[in-house]
Amino acid sequence: SMVLPTRAIALSLVANWVASENITGLTGAVACKHVFPAILLDPIGAALCLALLGILLAPFAGRFTSFSEVVIDRYGVLVGGAAAFLSLVGSLLWAAAQYKAIIELMQGVDVVPRNALEPTVIVGLLTWSLLGGLVADVWLDSLSMTLVAPSVCAVGLVAFASTPASAWSAEREHAHAVLPSMPAANTLAVGLLGNLFTEELAGRILLAGSPSQARRACFVAALTFGVVGLAPAALGTWARSSAGLLVNDDGESLCDDGSRQDRIVAVALQRLLPAWMQGGQKALFALLIVESLNTVDTSILMCAQVMASQAPRLAPGVG
């Protein structure tokens, strides 16, 4: 089989979080609360998760295609069956989160009427899942992340420079108040362990041609996401310091519920970037939609792969 380059696998691993969890989720979380402990979940916890996967899962690269296969080989059918079931549930929940993120991102692009958003996304997901495969997803992730990562970093730098010193001073005081603490430790633990046993990450890592390549890809991804993933925190801090930005046209707070909070990134970018860069904002959102589609596609592909490869082993006579 074709061996993918380390860079492609690493960028694909980073892409697993960037669209919904990082740019959309972290921007809103920081804007409505504070930088800490939000960044302990993502990107710090997620980056540590990638590094840990480079130690725990990379040794199986080139010999297995899914996390469930590794567990069955190491611990038997009973434990492997439980792992496969939990992985499938996790993949479906992750796909649902990405579906929600795609809808919010498409509202930022504003090219589809709101009453047609959900049918459009459903049709798009079904169509996307019929194209390519996991290898194609990795290549597309790599290509789009090559454009997304520099753009996100540039936005983060602009937001950082535009944020008043008093806002950063307030964030430092809050960080000293909450670190260290048990809630902060719990947030870090969720970021570190919450995605450790997911088929979406495992499927990408196990595409590597050897354990050493898988390990390098994980470490490069951890370093890349640890840096790029901080940009939305800067954007969220700037949004928090900007008067009137967190209230919609009806006078309702964007922090009141999760769906409104996810819209903060679009509002912040519209306010932060000059008018001549609004086209760039839509292009960035389009790339993030592609990333989310790829992540859902990977979830569906890994569910199908686990079912097809493990059902005969878990239930002899099936398949």
Radius of gyration: 20 Å
What is the average of the pLDDT values?
A: 83
Largest sheet: none
Number of helices in the DSSP assignment: 14
> What structural class do you assign from the helix and strand content?
mainly alpha
Ranges where pLDDT stays below 50 over 5 or more residues in a row are none
What is the molecular shape? globular
Number of strands: 0
Distance between the termini: 24 Å
Helix-strand string? HHHHHHHHHHHHHH
In what range is the share of β-strand residues? under 5%
Helix content: over 70%
Describe the structure.
With 319 residues, the chain is mainly alpha-helical. The chain starts with 5 loop residues before the first helix and ends in a 5-residue tail after the last helix. The longest helix is centred in the C-terminal third of the chain and has 37 residues, at 278-314. Helix content is 77%, strand content 0%.
Give a concise summary.
It is globular and about 55 Å long.
Summary tags:
single chain, 319 residues
Helix-strand blueprint:
Blueprint: H1 6-32, H2 35-56, H3 67-75, H4 77-109, H5 117-129, H6 134-162, H7 165-178, H8 182-193, H9 199-205, H10 211-228, H11 231-241, H12 258-261, H13 264-272, H14 278-314
Helix pairs in contact: 1-2, 1-6, 1-9, 1-10, 1-11, 1-14, 2-8, 2-10, 3-4, 4-5, 4-14, 5-14, 6-11, 6-14, 11-13
